Amino acid sequence: MQSYTIGQAARLLGVSPDTTRRWADAGRVLTHRDETGRRLIEGRDLAAFAVEVAQSGQVDEGISYTTARNAFPGIVTAIKLGDVAAQVEIQAGPHRLVSLLTREAVEELRLEVGMQATARVKSTSVHIDRT
User: Fold this and answer.
1) Which residues of 31-59 are buried (b: 16+ CB within 10 A; e: fewer)?
2) Contact criterion met (CB below 8 Å) for 29 and 41
3) What residue ranges do the domains of the chain occupy?
4) Domain 3-56 belongs to what topology?
């Protein structure tokens, strides 16, 4: 499973690294240290925390995730697989994006809850890029 540094987690949550450190120090999100002493957050833990923070309305530091190409970098928070279709949810700061795609596409991208991904929005379509 992918792990994230405090800085990477901060970008995905839409807050500053200092805010993420404070949340980790307060025990709101679990961290562990790697062999070099860096604090890391497991992908699944970060995905659950991203949903919690977004639902509480705490993500609002004036950071915009919309670019000219409408790209929303975030973290995969849920995957629902059907026989043919799939639903992938991405939390990008305060934004929750849902993409409906084929099960085959999810398997080809090897998408998992807790991994980093970018949702690209065009009209009513949401495309997923594995990052």
Assistant:
1) beeeeeeebbbbbbbbbbbbbebbeeebb
2) yes
3) 3-56, 71-130
4) Multidrug-efflux Transporter Regulator; Chain: A; Domain 2 (1.10.1660)
Could you report the average pLDDT of every consecutive run of 10 residues in the chain (131 residues)?
Answer: 91 88 93 94 93 74 52 92 96 91 93 92 80 73
State the pTM of this model: 0.63
Nearest to 88 by CA among 121, 113, 122: 113
Token pair, residue 125, equals 């379509």
92 residue type, one letter? A
For residue 55, which amino acid is it?
Q
Class of domain 71-130: mainly beta
